[in-house]
Amino acid sequence: MAKDILSMTALELSDALQKRALKSVDIAAACLDAGRNQTSPVYIKLTEQRAMEEAKAADARLDAGQPLSELDGVPIAWKDLYDMKGEVTTAASILFEDALPATADAPVVAKAKAAGMVSIGKLNMTEMAYSGIGFNPHYGTPKNACSDDIHYSPGGSSSGSGAVIGRNMVPIAIGSDTGGSVRVPASYNGVVGLKTSEGRYDKNGVIPLSRTFDTVGPLAKTVDDCAAIDRIFRSEHHVQSPPLAEKPRFFAPQTIVMDDLDEQVAADYSRACDQISDAGYSIEPIDLDCFANAFSVMAECGTLVAMDAWLEYQDKLTDDIRARMDERVLDRMMRGADMSAQDVVRLHHVRVEGVAEIIQKTGSGFMLMPTTPIPAPELEPLMADKSLFHKVNLMTLRNTTLGNIFNLPGVAMPMNSARMNSARMKDQRPTSLLVSTHAGRDDQLIEVARICEDILNRGES
User: Fold this and answer.
1) Catalytic member of 79, 111, 203, 221
2) Secondary structure of residue 13 in the 3-state scheme
3) Which residue of 98, 184, 287, 434 is most buried, as measured by CB atoms within 10 A?
4) What is the CATH number of domain 5-233?
5) pLDDT band for position 1 (50/70/90)?
6) Which residues contact 185 (CB under 8 A, 6 or more apart)?
7) Rg of the chain's alpha carbons, rounded to an integer?
8) Catalytic residue among 131, 157, 161, 187
9) Is the whole-model pTM more than 0.85?
């Protein structure tokens, strides 16, 4: 092959496998070698025996002309929240240090296996999936894909999932998104991440942080790759939303999400909107009161994530565990202990009222905003100052959190990938555009995200 195996997209690998120009065992071996030779702790564990057994089985099917799916033989890696039969699921946390191996695959893992995909390993993450920075004191913190010299945040909580795609170590990685944990690592590592509507995929067999907000989501090099895994994961009872009946309309929220943008993010976002507008699409600025109201009420009441996490894990938080747990994660979890039923009711009212406002103001349109208001920050200063860590973490998650509060599916995609690859721009970090819409329109969202990705790629070439 003229193109290096590890730099190929999932669908490029699929095409080569179907044509028998590549063998699944060779692709799996390349991914496993990349994992063994990792320069920072991206993987918690490689599942080498499983991977090679699955790859050999895929090659036998493909040689016989009997593929199980379009992704038969294509590798995938999993954030270590997902049960894999015979493996311990750690959530990268001491809370699960005594956990027994899983007795079955999580349903989404089982769906990938039934489609013939090859599971390479279990990926690192923020402890308990509760931070947008990606720091982990127990398993180490993956390096951001944009630099080996400076340890920038890889984003979180799906830190390994973002870094493994950005570093061309595997074509598809699965994360989870509770406040931005798929979209933030996608933003910081310059890749594509899909946050789905609540309930689109089965969450059984996935260690929860917030049963209210948790969603399963893929990260990959392209929107098409995310769409391919979406076709495998979605429910058998899924009712596909109708195709776009008209040219998509875009809205640019001005409330909160445009405040205090980093100069590079602001410039790249402005350029991205210009490219989409120049391609013949309308972009209308809008104010959304619910965005400001959400942060106002959370400042008074706390967050539903904190309440969910506290209720889920309070019995596990012994004095010994608290003494050894990442204090930044523990701080956030403990905030749920002081919340009242009235706080929870107010927060749910904010959700319901906000969803109604978004639908009323955007209708069948799609929202465009920066995924993160800042590019990946350097990790070292954040480790030295806990208050700075919490401040930057809140800023990192600010825009994406709104998508979880109001159940907005969204696709994060690079705004400056081509310029990042040019010698004169090596000092820049990735920036990202977030395309969102209201719940249940995931199929249309993916269709529109393809349009935006194509426009941005043409504009960057």
Assistant:
1) 79
2) helix
3) 184
4) 3.90.1300.10
5) very low
6) 134, 154, 155, 156, 158, 159, 161, 162, 163, 175, 191, 193, 219
7) 21
8) 157
9) yes
Known catalytic residue: 426? no
Strands across the sheet with 432-436, in order?
43-46, 118-123, 75-79, 172-177, 215-220, 192-195, 410-414, 432-436, 366-370, 250-253, 283-286
Kindly name the residue from 93, 119, 161, 181 that is annotated as catalytic.
181
Structure tokens at 326: 């990442």
Q: Where are the domains of the chain?
A: 5-233
What's the confidence (pLDDT) of residue 239? 65
Backbone angles phi, psi at 427, to 5 degrees: -85, -5
Enumerate the H helices of 279-422 as residue ranges: 289-301, 304-313, 319-324, 327-334, 341-362, 379-384, 386-405, 417-420
Q: Tell me the per-residue pLDDT of 365-384, one tens digit each, with 9 for 90 and over.
A: 999 999 999 999 999 999 99
Token pair for residue 56? 């050999």
pLDDT for 230 equals: 98
79 is catalytic: yes
Residue 344 burial (CB count, 10 A): 17
Tell me which residue has tokens 């944009």. Answer: 146
**Total Cβ atoms within 10 A of residue 63:** 10
Does the annotation mark 143 as catalytic?
Answer: no
Q: What percent of the residues of the chain are helix, what percent strand, and what percent coil, each to the nearest 5?
A: 45, 15, 40
